[in-house]
Design goal:
The protein has 16 helices and 26 strands. By secondary structure, the chain is an alpha+beta fold. Among the domains are: 144 residues, Dipeptide-binding Protein, Domain 1 (Dipeptide-binding Protein, domain 1); 227 residues, Dipeptide-binding Protein, domain 3, CATH 3.10.105. Strands 11-12-13-4-14-24-15 form a seven-stranded mixed sheet, with helices on both faces. Strand 11 and strand 12 form a beta hairpin. Helix 9 packs antiparallel against helix 11 and helix 14 runs antiparallel to helix 15. The longest helix is centred in the last third of the chain and has 17 residues. The radius of gyration is 25 Å and the shape is globular. The two termini are 17 Å apart.
Length: 598
């Protein structure tokens, strides 16, 4: 293929100094940064790209400022055949039934489909593998007419029987594959949360294949978010043949009906997909031959990959880089709607966290506004409840706890800790107080380490001394699910546009009103009962009243510390077209086209 040399303009992302994320008055000035220059050899072009970036070093008094001179690869004049997306981490698993993270969900969204899906830029359900549906007057019976002639990627027919088999896999604890997954340590977290539990505890009276093109769901009671639940990326269908064949290895062998097919997963590197030539919906077939989702955990490295054309789009960037991307004509900056909340979670197995005075002290010790101003690049806002303002169950009347270090100290003293808090009793053992932060950038925490460091500094001023900890993403989520993290940062990007998904998922008790390990054993039956009542109503106005009531109680009882809502930024090369941000954060790539370079 004929190549032409492309002159890259010098790209310098200005560093306005390292932000004093402790936001402490009178903090000592940082030492001047050390400077390194690294030359990365590539195929030579007429001019190099020069980029300045901050590279974090552990246990140094000042950051290392690194100038990276890249001899960039010449860009072919023809349009690329693959769309390459830079992700903050790699998937945990590609079996939609057992995942909860958006990184996995992004890949799953390209491979699998459900009965309905969200419209490309909203959380409005639209037809997918179901072409139409009807609902009984009492809201308990849903009948779906299915697309015909659809096949899974392995050639298995998609039909009503396949739908029933998938629901049986998710919700029947005696299903052989379900049993194997549980034995292997997997959990069907979303199914339990959205459909009330397993077996007889679920919302389903029965699910039946009326004929090959018709499936009927009979519910025990109406479920307000039912259709929105079905549109979530976890309730999509795997080939029954593949489920039987791969069992617990379905994580690494996804077989759906979607516009892209799975090719390979290179751990810690990338996932490769290829266009499904036999895709049933020709009008929405994949526009690129391949999709590659590349794992680049470091924000600056990911941005450098975009600058050199190694990737075409990315999610997650340092706040200081947002304005630079916005003002550079070689890029497009897109913002997702604010559908995220970052929070600090208490594990109630920690004895001290059972005291509301300690929880209030932690809340009032954190200068959330300063953190948002310093570390969100103008896209964030302070959060005071679980739902972001855009959701219809949001309570605008909640007045947040004031930032007040002295009040926090007094609350600690009143709780029996006049000298501060550095150790806690966790599961009956005295241990140092650890605060865990995620190892990957997420929409609600663009730089978890910096945000965690800022929170820790604020807490220290009030006498609450935490040891910051992290671990790889899959292990982090696993430990959270098993209730092994004492105090941790996490967040949520809404999956379905319904408050139930934002609030009940976290604060509803499980079967027999048991507290959930994944939520740090929160146990507030009053809140849970309100949320469960809201879920079975169909009138949105009545539901909204209940969600607002629950949010007020969650705030007043300080069941969580809510830090920030965010409009997550996406950066694309200017020649990328058809990328439409979705509030759920898991966009469809079948509409994306990468045009020929400049």
């Amino acid at each position: 293929m004929k190549k032409r040399s492309i002159q890259f303009a010098t790209l310098i992302f200005a560093l306005f100094g390292v932000l004093a994320v402790s936001i402490a008055c009178g903090a000592p000035a940082a030492a001047p940064p050390a400077v390194q220059t690294v030359v990365v050899e590539k195929i030579q072009t007429s001019a190099p790209v020069v980029q300045t970036q901050v590279v974090e070093k552990i246990q140094t008094s000042a950051p290392v400022v690194q100038t990276v001179v890249v001899q960039a690869t010449a860009v072919p004049s023809a349009a690329p055949q693959a769309f390459i997306f830079g992700a903050q981490g790699e998937p945990v698993c590609l079996d939609p039934a057992v995942i909860t993270d958006g990184i996995s969900g992004r890949v799953i969204n390209q491979i699998y489909e459900g009965l309905v899906k969200f419209d490309k830029d909203t959380t409005n359900p639209v037809p997918a593998l179901a072409k139409s549906w009807t609902t009984s007057e009492d809201g308990k019976v849903w009948t779906f007419k299915l697309q015909e002639g659809v096949k899974f990627h392995d050639g298995t027919d998609f039909n009503a029987d396949a739908v029933v088999k998938n629901f049986d896999y998710w919700g029947n604890t005696k299903n052989p594959v379900h049993e194997k997954q549980i034995a292997a340590g997997q959990v069907f977290e979303y199914y339990e949360a959205q459909f009330g539990g397993f077996d007889g505890d679920s919302v389903f009276e029965k699910i039946e294949a009326v004929d090959p093109a018709t499936v009927k769901f009979t519910l025990k009671s109406p479920q307000g978010p039912f259709l929105n639940n079905l549109a979530m990326f976890v309730f999509v269908f795997a080939s029954p043949t593949a489920l039987e064949k791969y069992g617990t290895e379905t994580c690494k062998n996804p077989v759906g009906t979607g516009p892209y097919k799975f090719v390979e997963w290179k751990p810690n590197e990338q996932v490769t997909l290829e266009a499904n030539a036999d895709y049933w919906d020709k009008a929405n077939a994949a526009k690129m031959s391949r999709v590659i989702i590349r794992n680049i955990p470091n924000n600056s490295a990911r941005l450098l990959a975009l600058a050199t054309g190694e990737i075409h789009a990315l999610e997650g960037m340092e706040p200081r880089d947002v304005a630079a991307i916005k003002n550079d004509p070689r890029y497009k900056l897109l913002l997702r709607p604010a559908n995220t909340t970052g929070y600090l979670a208490f594990n109630y197995k920690v004895k001290e966290f059972q005291d509301p005075k300690v929880r209030q002290a932690i809340t009032q010790a954190i200068n959330k506004q300063a953190i948002v101003d310093a570390l969100y690049g103008g896209t964030g806002m302070v959060a005071n409840q679980m739902q972001p303002p855009a959701l219809w169950g949001y309570n605008p009347d909640i007045k947040d706890w004031a930032y007040d270090t002295e009040a926090a100290k007094k609350l600690l003293a009143d709780a029996g800790f006049p000298n501060g808090l550095s150790e806690v009793t966790f599961d009956g053992k005295k241990v140092p107080l650890e605060m865990w932060y995620m190892p990957v950038s997420r929409p609600y925490y663009p730089n978890p380490k910096d945000i965690g460091t800022a929170i820790a500094a604020d807490l220290a001023k009030a006498g609450i001394n935490v040891s910051l900890q992290t671990v790889d993403w899959a292990t982090y989520l696993d430990r959270r699910s098993n209730g092994q993290l004492p105090f941790y940062m996490l967040g949520w990007t809404g999956d379905n546009g319904d408050p139930d998904n934002f609030v009940c998922y976290f604060f509803c008790l499980g079967a027999d009103d048991a507290p959930l390990s994944r939520e740090g054993f929160i146990e507030d039956k009053e809140v849970s009962d309100i949320l469960k009542k809201a879920a079975v109503l169909t009138d949105q106005g009545e539901r909204a009243k209940l969600y607002k009531q629950a949010e007020q109680l969650i705030h007043d009882r300080i069941l969580r510390v809510f830090i920030a809502n965010n409009q997550p930024p996406l950066a694309l090369l200017a020649n990328v077209e058809g990328y439409v941000p979705n509030p759920t954060g898991t966009e469809f790539f079948n509409t994306v086209v990468v045009k020929a370079g400049p």
